C-alpha cells in the first residue's frame, strides 16, 4: 500500500483517543484525520494534528471528507455501547448500522483500501458455551449492541467478497484504560473501579460478584488493532471477527488486585440492568486463530495492568 491516509471516526472515545495518538506516531500526524461528533476534545487530540467534527450518520459529510482528504484507510470506531444501547435500542441500531453502512458505501465508492470495524464479546450471547468461546460458534446476542456487532461482522465479510474491501475487526473484550473514560458500556465498571479506588478507597459495583468477563489493557488493545491491520492478508483466515483475549476477572478478583496496591480499598455490590447483559457474555475467549494467523500475544496480565493503571491514574488525578 502507498502512504496511508487514515480517517478515525469516534476518535475521542475510549479506544479512539489512545489509538489515534498511536496512529499519529506510527504513520505521521499529517496522515491521520481524527474525527468525532463531540465538543469536549482533549488537548492531546486537538493539538497534536488534524481534528474535525464529522457525523458518520451523514453520508454526504463522510463522502466529502474522504474525497477531500484522499482517505485510503478507515478506523470506524463511532458506536453506541451496550449499556446505552439498552436504554435506547433504536438509536443504537441507527448509529451503529446506518453509520457503518455510510462508511462502507463511501469506502467502496472511493476505493478505500482498508477498514477496521471493531466487534465485541457482546456478539455472542446466551445458549453458547461461555468458557473459552471458540473462534467459530453460533452467535446469538441478546443486547441490541451485540446484534449490531454481529451484523457488522457479517457486513465486513460480505463487502470483502462482494467488492474486495479489506475489512478487518476484532471481538474486543472489556477494555481498561487510563486516558479516556469509556462511555455507556457494561464493562465500564472495570475502569471506574480504579478512579474510585484512588479517590475514595471504595467502589460500589453495578456488576455482581461471581461474574467473570474477558478484559484487556489498552496498550494490548492498540497493539492488537494495529497488528491486525498490518498483517499480510494472505495469512488471515478471518476478516471482521477475530477473537482476542488477555485475561478474565470478576469484580472481586480485580478488587483483590487493587487491594495489593491500595490495602484500604473496599468493594460492595449493587447490580443494575447491566448485570443481565454481563451474564449473557462469555467468561473467557479462545484466541488461538489470532495467535496463529498474525502472532497475537498480550503483554499485560491482570497484575501488571493493575499496577500500571494505578500508577498512571494516580499521577493524572493528583
Ligand atoms: N466494552 C463494551 C461494552 O461494555 C463491550 O464491547 O459495551
Strand-pairing-aware structural class? alpha/beta
Number of strands: 14
**Helix and strand succession?**
EHEHEHEHHEEHEEEHEEHEEHEHHH
Mean pLDDT, to the nearest integer, reads: 97
Oligomer: single chain
The CATH architecture of the largest domain is 3-Layer(aba) Sandwich
CATH superfamily of the largest domain: NAD(P)-binding Rossmann-like Domain
In short:
The protein is α/β, with parallel strands linked by helices.
Overall description:
This protein has 318 residues and is an alpha/beta fold. It has 2 domains: 6-173 and 218-243, 3-Layer(aba) Sandwich (Rossmann fold); 174-215 and 246-285 and 299-317, UDP-galactose 4-epimerase, domain 1 (Alpha-Beta Complex), CATH 3.90.25. It is built from 12 helices and 14 strands. Strands 3-2-1-4-5-7 form a 6-stranded parallel sheet, sandwiched between helices. It has a 3-stranded parallel sheet with strand order 6-8-12. It has a 3-stranded mixed sheet with strand order 9-11-13. The longest helix is centred in the first third of the chain and has 21 residues, at 89-109. The model has no long low-confidence stretch (mean pLDDT 97). The structure holds serine (SER).
Record the SSE blueprint.
Layout: E1 6-9, H1 14-27, E2 32-36, H2 43-46, E3 50-53, H3 59-68, E4 73-76, H4 82-87, H5 89-109, E5 114-116, E6 119-120, H6 144-163, E7 166-168, E8 170-172, E9 174-176, H7 189-200, E10 202-205, E11 213-217, H8 218-230, E12 242-243, E13 247-249, H9 251-261, E14 266-269, H10 274-279, H11 288-294, H12 302-316
Parallel strand pairs: 1-2, 1-4, 2-3, 4-5, 5-7, 6-8, 8-12, 9-11, 10-14
Antiparallel strand pairs: 11-13
Bound molecules: serine.
Serine binds at residues 81-82, 120, 122, 145, 172, 174, 185-187.
Amino acid at each position: 500500500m502507498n502512504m496511508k491516509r487514515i480517517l478515525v471516526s469516534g476518535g475521542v472515545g475510549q479506544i479512539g483517543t489512545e489509538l489515534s495518538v498511536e496512529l499519529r506516531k506510527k504513520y505521521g500526524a499529517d496522515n491521520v484525520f481524527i474525527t468525532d461528533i463531540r465538543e469536549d476534545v482533549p488537548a492531546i487530540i486537538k493539538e497534536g494534528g488534524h481534528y474535525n467534527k464529522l457525523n458518520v450518520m451523514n453520508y454526504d459529510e463522510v463522502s466529502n471528507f474522504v474525497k477531500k482528504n484522499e482517505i485510503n484507510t478507515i478506523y470506524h470506531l463511532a458506536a453506541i455501547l451496550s449499556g446505552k444501547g439498552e436504554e435506547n435500542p433504536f438509536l443504537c441500531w441507527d448509529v451503529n448500522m446506518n453509520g457503518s453502512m455510510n462508511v462502507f458505501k463511501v469506502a467502496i465508492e472511493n476505493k478505500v483500501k482498508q477498514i477496521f470495524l471493531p466487534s465485541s464479546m457482546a456478539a455472542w450471547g446466551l445458549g453458547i458455551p461461555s468458557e473459552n468461546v471458540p473462534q467459530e460458534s453460533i452467535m446469538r446476542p441478546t443486547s441490541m449492541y451485540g446484534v449490531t456487532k454481529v451484523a457488522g461482522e457479517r457486513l465486513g465479510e460480505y463487502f470483502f467478497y462482494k467488492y474486495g474491501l479489506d475489512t478487518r475487526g476484532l471481538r474486543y473484550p472489556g477494555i481498561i484504560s487510563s486516558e479516556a473514560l469509556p462511555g455507556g458500556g457494561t464493562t465500564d465498571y472495570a475502569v471506574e473501579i480504579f478512579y474510585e479506588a484512588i479517590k475514595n478507597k471504595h467502589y460500589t459495583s453495578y456488576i455482581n460478584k461471581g461474574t467473570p468477563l474477558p478484559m484487556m489493557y489498552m496498550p494490548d488493545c492498540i497493539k492488537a488493532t494495529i497488528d491486525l491491520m498490518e498483517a499480510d492478508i494472505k495469512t488471515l483466515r478471518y476478516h471482521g471477527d477475530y477473537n482476542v483475549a488477555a485475561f478474565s476477572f470478576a469484580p472481586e478478583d480485580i478488587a483483590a488486585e487493587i487491594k495489593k496496591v491500595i490495602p484500604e480499598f473496599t468493594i460492595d455490590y449493587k447490580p443494575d440492568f447491566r448485570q443481565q447483559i454481563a451474564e449473557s457474555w462469555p467468561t473467557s475467549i479462545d484466541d488461538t486463530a489470532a495467535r496463529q494467523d498474525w502472532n497475537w500475544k498480550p503483554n499485560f496480565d491482570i497484575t501488571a495492568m493493575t499496577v500500571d493503571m494505578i500508577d498512571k491514574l494516580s499521577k493524572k488525578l493528583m
